[in-house]
Amino acid sequence: MRAAGVDGCRSGWICLSRAGGGPVEVRCVATAAGLFAVAPRPDVFAIDIPIGLTETGARRCDEEARALLGPRRTSVFPAPIRAVLEARDLAEGRAISRKVQGKSISSQLWSIVPKIREVDALLRADPSARRCVREVHPEVSFAAWNGKPMQHPKKSAAGRAERRALVDGYFGGDAFDAVRRQLRVRDVAHDDVLDAFAALWTAERILRGEARTVPAEPPVDAVGQRMEIVF
């Protein structure tokens, strides 16, 4: 069976996949739909993007993920409410959020709304995709992988080193470099590569039946998407 780990990047999406502990294969695609335009399609996609969305208020999975991460809690910022996906720009997104739930959204959150919207539309249109796509958060995966939250922020040199040690130790001594050589830095940042590896690590745990979720019994949103983070 084939597992895939996916993270957003400057040029679209980076997808790392492998089957049966074999070599890691690399793809970089412009759209979420491009992730599925490959044969054979992976059995599980673990993707770093909010999927299930509330109508108002915070998602329980985000709150529980922050509690798990301790010093790295700020890496989990609130997902937008579903109505924000209809906004055409940040000003409209903020107005919708204030009207529905009495608080605004950050420009950082708005920057990933197009990708959230893209994945949401894909999953709603393709039931087969919905069955194999699961939401992850790399810092939650790294914390589970490491046995405790990572010590340093992911964009720092020390943070990259400690995450790379996990990646190379599990996937092979030069796994990070082997993937890095196939991608342009202007398209995919170092931390995007590491995050995709964390997602792939989680996808393989899902296939083995070892993965956990927060919350332990995820609710579904108004369109039937699970509100969960898998690790």
Report helical residue fraction: 40-55%
SSE order: EEEHEHHHHEHHHHEE
Rg measurement, Å: 17 Å
Number of helices: 9
Largest sheet: 5 strands, mixed
Average pLDDT level: 96
Amount of beta strand: 5-15%
- Form type: globular
* N-to-C CA distance: 19 Å
What is the spatial order of strands in the main beta sheet? Answer: 3-2-1-4-5
List segments where confidence is low: pLDDT < 50 over at least 5 consecutive residues: none
Number of strands: 7
- Alpha-beta content class: alpha/beta
Task: Tell me what the structure shows.
The protein has a domain at about 1-50 and about 135-210. The protein is about 45% helix and about 15% strand. It is built from 9 helices and 7 strands, in the order βββαβααααβααααββ. The chain has helices at about 30-35, 60-70, 90-100, 105-125, 125-130, 140-145, 155-170, 175-180, 190-210; strands at about 1-10, 10-20, 25-30, 45, 135, 215, 230. The protein has a 5-stranded mixed β-sheet.
Which helices and strands, and how do they pair?
Layout: E1 2-9, E2 12-19, E3 25-29, H1 32-35, E4 44-47, H2 60-69, H3 90-101, H4 107-125, H5 127-132, E5 133-135, H6 138-146, H7 157-171, H8 175-180, H9 190-208, E6 213-214, E7 229-230
Parallel strand pairs: 1-4, 4-5
Antiparallel strand pairs: 1-2, 2-3, 6-7
Helix pairs in contact: 6-9, 7-9
